[in-house]
């Protein structure tokens, strides 16, 4: 077993990246019974907070930065549930770039450090999801180099579409410059208002830009329950919870279809 590693990204903030990272990890581990590792590479640590709140975890003792400094990410893996593990982030991780520049002189060594440290862990998981800040930075570079796929999150607004375009262009740069082996899994729309005209136009423009096959048929609809989970943690007690979970279960089903397609293409190349 070697984990399929997926980075969730866009170079525009506030588009729903973290929510998608957390919820896809949650559904894979609970509904599909898969072994999942969620890696929080954002110093704000929002994914870590939401997972900890959902699992009733009171304290986080070690973070991803401790793992980077010691050269051993396995030492900072936190067990959340039977099938879900977390490598949490904290504000101290803002010093990641300084650390890399002090440790490594070559660009390729700086941006490949995550890949090197992640390799021994991949045998223990079916899936690894990486949540990154919405910036062109050492965080994004390390995540891109370490991942097999990128899931691009597209909120239904013009700046998010531009952020997605920039993300694909930068991904191409990393691939060309550093020989990264990463595929675009697809573009996942996150709607501001279900049925809204702006949402519809943005999704249509995304299909024109990226191609119909590359834009997810399933979309993340705006639901009050998803916002409530930020405060309460993830719940599954009433029909509103179940409706919110179903959205992400449908997305996971489509992720599986897309992964199967990539593997089929790979076998015939």
UniProtKB/TrEMBL annotation:
Gene3D superfamilies: P-loop containing nucleotide triphosphate hydrolases. Keywords: Plasmid. It holds the Pfam family AAA_31. It comes from the Bacteria. Residues 4-184 form the AAA domain. The keyword Transmembrane does not apply. The keyword DNA damage does not apply. InterPro entries: AAA_dom (IPR025669), DNA_Partitioning_ATPase (IPR050678), P-loop_NTPase (IPR027417). This is ParA family protein.
